[in-house]
UniProtKB/TrEMBL annotation:
Its EC number is 2.7.11.1. SUPFAM superfamilies: Protein kinase-like (PK-like). CDD domains: STKc_NIM1. InterPro entries: Kinase-like_dom_sf, NIM1K_STKc, Prot_kinase_dom, Protein_kinase_ATP_BS, Ser/Thr_kinase_AS. This is non-specific serine/threonine protein kinase. The lineage of its organism: Eukaryota, Metazoa, Chordata, Craniata, Vertebrata. It comes from Channa striata. Residues 68-328 form the Protein kinase domain. GO terms for cellular component: cytoplasm. Residues 464-478 have a biased composition (Basic and acidic residues).
Length: 520
């Protein structure tokens, strides 16, 4: 009955139906009796949150948020900051996205609502997970899966272009995530290298669903022009409606070009010139990129949306044929979440049994599950459940990256570690011929492929000196000039600006800043 109470264990702690904290009905005699009884981790934590002065102070100053202990900052955006945290019960690391509700206008609130709704629907090895939502009077906290391997943009800027096999493994995971999203009618609309994260085991995670949207059918047209200009499809720069899936396909083409060359296909000094480059669809693929990869890039970067490759065409292309996913045979993600823990028919599932056992060890009972919602992401029970379920799935190989046929996992891991060594030159396709599974074009005499690749430092300098300027994102997310940009003719590096392009000649960033447009 709502408002009633139930006894959790033989101790004197009593929990209300909708709270994990102990009630205030216990008297001094009860407190003395409690000292002789061993508390569960859940009881101990909730007791500290109510009575321990240090814990209460941490909750007040923001060093704790719900069941999470907050640590240092690991990223930030226009309206949010991201901090490292860990669950006080499970000890698992999480990423805590903090949003100031007082700074969100009605449009930003709608985008945030879409982000939460999209992430609630997504359960895939290559999509970042939402564990829990914690709402406070002035702040909103999204508890997300922690990917500790950095992002694709920084990886390439610091280490140079990816090797052929590493590109295959990375792109195949992005493609798998987008196919899954499109199958359930979710369009990302903001794919870029900064939103492709890596775990410590090199598993790819697509993140940032702030501009995502759900459509009733993939043939539905959209009219909100948003995303990052360097990755925007030509139709986004025109005052007309567009189809969602081809926009994501175009962005994947830009991503693949960036991975295999270390530079962007469309570069310009100003937003207006960038817009013209993208609409014209003129770019040059270096000759040392393998032929099958070149065909895939050209199939994705076609100016006419209906002529672009479909997802299934990309999955069946020659370049990706050697890629094998280790988790394809795993059982599908249960759709009922916590409900499966309450239904006896589903208790035979090994994963659910293991999660249930872990919950019981922490002190969660069937009453906790029933009274705190079954699919409500704003429940701390849901957060703990999702963290434990993900931990169990990772132990079963759910987050392992795919393999390239003919290579062992140790060989691939060693090859990726070689790419991470800053002191070594960036690897080219010619340096690992034994791993090559697709036919390569032999380097011409005197070509760049016959010489050792540039070091990461020289590559970054070369990128900064290019007349058109590679499009890179500075830490503050705004357009900046590189060193020496005060000189006449120095290139402007167009940052990864979240834009809502309201006209064909320019747009407004998410923070309300007007993007520079080159007027004819």
């Amino acid at each position: 009955m709502p408002g009633g109470q139930y006894q959790v264990t033989s101790t004197k702690f009593q929990h209300s139906l909708y709270s994990l904290t102990d009630s205030s009905g216990a008297g001094p005699e009860d407190e003395e009796a409690d000292t002789s009884v061993r508390l569960t981790p859940l009881q101990k934590l909730t007791s500290e949150m109510c009575k321990d002065e240090k814990t209460i102070k941490e909750l007040i100053i923001g060093r704790r948020v719900g069941f999470y202990k907050v640590r240092g900052e690991i990223g930030y955006g226009t309206f949010s900051r991201v901090k490292l945290a860990f669950n006080a019960l499970t000890k698992d690391k999480v990423a805590l996205k903090i949003l100031d509700k007082t700074r969100l206008d009605s449009q930003s609130q709608r985008l945030l609502s879409r982000e939460i709704s999209s992430m609630e629907s997504l359960q895939h090895p290559n999509v970042i997970r939402l564990y829990e939502v914690v709402e406070m009077p002035s702040r909103l906290y999204l508890v997300l899966e922690y990917a500790g391997g950095g992002d694709l943009h920084n990886k390439i800027c610091n280490e140079g272009k990816l090797s052929d096999n590493t590109s295959k493994v990375t792109f195949a995971q992005i493609l798998s995530a987008i196919k899954y999203m499109h199958n359930i009618n979710i369009i990302h609309r903001d794919l870029k290298a900064e939103n492709v994260l890596f775990t410590s085991s090199s598993c790819v995670k697509v993140a940032d669903f702030g501009f995502s949207t759900r459509v009733s059918s993939r043939s539905d047209t959209l009219d909100t022009f948003c995303g990052s200009p360097p990755y925007a499809a030509p139709e986004l720069f025109k005052d007309e409606c567009y189809l969602g899936p081809p926009v994501d396909v175009w962005a994947m083409g830009v991503l693949l070009f960036f991975m295999v060359t270390g530079s962007m296909p469309f570069r310009a000094e100003t937003m207006g010139k960038l817009r013209r480059c993208i609409i014209q669809g003129v770019y040059t693929i270096p000759p040392w990129v393998p032929g099958p990869c070149q065909r895939l890039i050209r199939g994705m970067l076609k100016p006419v949306p209906t002529e672009r490759y479909a997802i299934d065409q990309m999955l069946g292309c020659d370049w990706l044929l050697p890629v094998e996913f280790p988790w394809l045979l795993l059982p599908p993600q249960p759709t009922s979440s916590l409900q499966s823990l309450l239904e006896s028919d589903n208790r035979g599932m090994e994963e659910e049994e293991e999660v249930r056992s872990l919950l019981e060890e922490l002190g969660f009972t069937t009453e906790h599950i029933q009274n705190n919602g079954l699919t409500d992401s704003r429940s701390p029970v849901t957060g703990v459940y999702r963290i434990l379920l993900h931990r169990v799935q990772k132990r079963r190989g759910y987050d392992l990256p795919p393999m390239v046929r003919g290579m062992t996992r140790q060989q691939l891991a060693g090859h990726q570690m070689t790419l991470r060594t800053p002191s070594q030159p960036a690897q080219t396709s010619q340096t690992q011929p034994s791993y090559t599974l697709q036919p390569w074009k032999h380097p011409l005499p005197g070509s760049s492929q016959s010489r050792p690749g540039p070091t990461p430092t020289s590559m970054k300098r070369q990128m900064a000196r290019r007349d058109c300027g590679d499009i890179c994102r500075p830490d503050n997310g705004r357009s900046v000039r590189t060193a020496g940009a005060d000189r006449p003719g120095a290139p402007l590096l167009c940052g990864s600006i979240h834009m809502q392009m309201r006209s064909a000649g320019g747009g407004t960033s998410e923070g309300g800043q007007q993007a520079a447009a080159d007027r004819p």
